Amino acid sequence: MATNLINRFLQGSxxxxxRRELLTIVHSNQDTADRLIAYEKRNHPGHTDQWYLEKVIxxxxx
Length: 62
Known about the structure:
- The protein has helices at 2-25, 30-43, 49-61.
- By secondary structure, the protein is mainly alpha-helical.
- The protein has one domain (2-61).
- Helix 1 packs parallel to helix 3 (49-61).
- The N and C termini lie far apart (39 Å).
């Protein structure tokens, strides 16, 4: 149970870091960030939030 809570906390902090990174890349434009994530969710359903954030950031840096 304790490791599950730790893993959820670490995943949450990773997702927050990725969200901040994405917002930096899109110059704090939340609408753009949301739109890019929604696009990836439509085209690649069933992944974790972390996966979508990493995918969007990867695509923008490419």
